[in-house]
Amino acid sequence: MMEVIKRKYVIPGDVIITGPYRPDQNVYQDGDRIISTSIGISEIYENTVRVIPLSGMYVPKTSDLIIGKVIGHSSLSWEFDINSCFIGFLPAQDVFGRDYSPTKDELKARLDKGDLVAARVANFDRSRDPLLTIQDRDLGKIESGELIKIAPSKIPRLIGKRGSMIQTIEMATKAIVTIGQNGLIVVSCEDPVGLLKAIEAVKMVDAQAHTPNLTERVKSMLGVELGENNDTINE
Amino acid sequence: MTQLMNENGIRCDGRSIDQIRNVSIKVGVLKNADGSAYIEFGKNKILAGIFGPRDVHPKHMADQDSGILRCRYHMSPFSVTERKNPAPSRREIEISKVIKEALQPAVILKDFPRTVVDVFIEVLQADGGSRCAALDAASVALVDAGIPMRDIVAACAAGKVADKIVLDVNDEEDKEGQADMPVAYMPNLGKITLMQLDGILTPVEYKKCLETAIGGCKQVYEIQKKALMEKYFKNGEA
Question: CB distance from B222 to chain A under 8 Å?
């Protein structure tokens, strides 16, 4: 089947298309009509229809990389603020290993209130709060960097097509940008000028996420030569 | 008693019988709320703010299967000519309830179990038909907050004034007129989510009144749509 992508601005209640299509994210089916449930940009890809939302809160998805802040702990787990309507749980076994015992190990010694942690969502469904894990490469406590909060709906734009946007920013500023799918971003850089530039670039993406030719403008702001890697909203 | 309509069918504020008041909506006016909207509906000035989805307090209200919707409609002490006691009155509690029930069919909260979406509506200046204006602002604010919705709820009143069915009754017409019928409507689905009637209408008048009100809702819907487009897509078409 031919690849067809049609994009359109939609608001809740707008009929995107009628016919035998499969509803994906942020749409629902009413008879043979596919209707948007969010304000955003609709996409028709082959026979599935979805809407990329422009507003809204982060909803955890299994295997998402997120950045959370420790808000407390019980004797068996930590609780995280993950910028969502749910609280993230990190079980102590995940950090101390199988033979964790509440009498022997001190949770506070590893992660304390206010610590920032890069974690992955191990499991989430509607019956319980999201379960996190730090058992992977590049996960765990974040020791240094600048924290920025942007709208979670704009994260895909910050990453760009095949990571083009984030690569541009990282290469131009020599900064390391850790992006949490929940809208929290940590930027660290040895060079203070590069750090400020990288922060400015991230904020620029947040403010202008819905406009075309954003990569070009970020590039010119960072002082990179324009050229290949064009990305526009119509692609 | 003031004359509500002259012999040419022009109403006390200079409108014709099928004309709504000037409506303007602004989206995203409150920084601290998750979603917000400000509406001017004739002389009505109303702010709506949305918080959530967030944790439910008190906890016993939480639903394990779905999110819940809560609504507070409140009139400021300075919203009317004589100072209004800021404590919630019987009327405000009732309007909070009907607004909640009018928004409930539109929102989809099944993906947010154990959470609540709070809708706060503050009437800064009241001028008749404030529940409809409040609903219009609230549903736009819900979209701004990114709450999944089946459709936008648009509301408008119709009524009977000087023996004629008129669209969008104002404060004077509401007090002196013969009937007032606020209607909330989901334009794309063609479904009514709120219908109240204060006064007496014959079956024929009732039908006409309802049709007139729905016509008004559709006009309001276009303004809501424009306000949302203004905030989110002002930089050209996709």
Answer: no
